[in-house]
Write a structure and sequence with these properties.
The chain is of the alpha+beta class. The chain is built from seven helices and seven strands; from the N terminus they run βββββαααββαααα. α1 runs parallel beside α3 and α2 packs antiparallel against α3.
Length: 247
């Protein structure tokens, strides 16, 4: 008989199975992204009913099976219920889960990923930073965690640290004027944007959502984040398509 194990994680998304069961995809600190079956979770008296929802964070006691895990017990730490009451926040949270799922798999070491997702959900509910800004910060930081980080401290081509004023997604980050001229890059960015990028990729995760931007710098960040993601992520996300319809 296989032994029970405890994992700490956040439910990325949920699907229905049969008449009474649910299939949970959970990002865990210990085992990466795993699939867990919550048998009977849709029954009115099930102890899994409230805990087997998207975005729930807790300690999950599971039993490994040949291809997945079966849920035994849940100790919920955060439900993040309020996300579901705001359609825009719900779409953003779904996108953050989709984006995380794209990068993670079973067996990964996911402490940094889990911490990032947790503080991002908290930021969504705090309302101190716009949802759009949260998105761009999250995208760039997750890509950095996964080894696809944007080079923001020196010219990605020659290593020069002074006079970095240009950005090129294909090159992988910022460029000095000389290298930008050689590569025929014309996308010039402000010092404020450079400082913002440096902050995003280097600050402790618990301080990640502690700033706001002017409209001008926000537009620059949107330009950089979208082009960087489009260059290195080969997937269309359903939740982003839904967001685009909200206007």
């Amino acid at each position: 008989m296989r032994q029970e194990i405890e994992v700490t994680g956040i439910v990325l998304y949920v699907s229905l199975v049969g008449e009474y069961d649910k299939r949970l995809v959970i990002l865990t600190k210990e085992c990466g992204k795993i699939t867990v079956f919550a048998n009977g979770a849709r029954k009115p008296n099930s102890s899994f009913r409230a805990a087997s929802q998207s975005f729930v964070m807790g300690t999950f006691t599971v039993i490994p099976t040949r291809e997945a895990y079966n849920l035994v017990k849940v100790d919920v730490k955060e439900y993040f219920h309020d996300i579901a009451y705001d359609m825009e926040k719900m779409c953003y949270a779904s996108y953050f889960s989709e984006f995380m799922s794209y990068y993670t798999r079973e067996g990964d070491f996911c402490t940094d990923n889990l911490n990032l997702l947790y503080v991002t959900f908290k930021a969504l509910l705090d309302n101190r930073v716009s949802n759009e800004l949260i998105r761009y910060i999250y995208e760039l930081r997750l890509m950095d965690i996964e080894g696809q980080g944007l080079q923001a401290y020196s010219c990605v081509k020659c290593g020069e640290k002074e006079g970095i004023r240009y950005f090129d997604a294909k090159a992988g980050g910022v460029l000095c004027e000389k290298c930008a001229l050689e590569l025929k890059v014309t996308s010039k960015v402000s010092d404020s944007l450079i400082y913002t990028l440096q902050y995003i990729v280097s600050t402790p995760v618990n301080k990640l959502y502690g700033f706001t931007l002017s409209e001008k710098v926000m537009a620059e960040l949107a330009f950089v984040a979208e082009r960087f993601r489009n260059e290195y992520v080969d997937k269309k996300f359903k939740s982003l398509e839904t967001l685009s319809t909200l206007g």
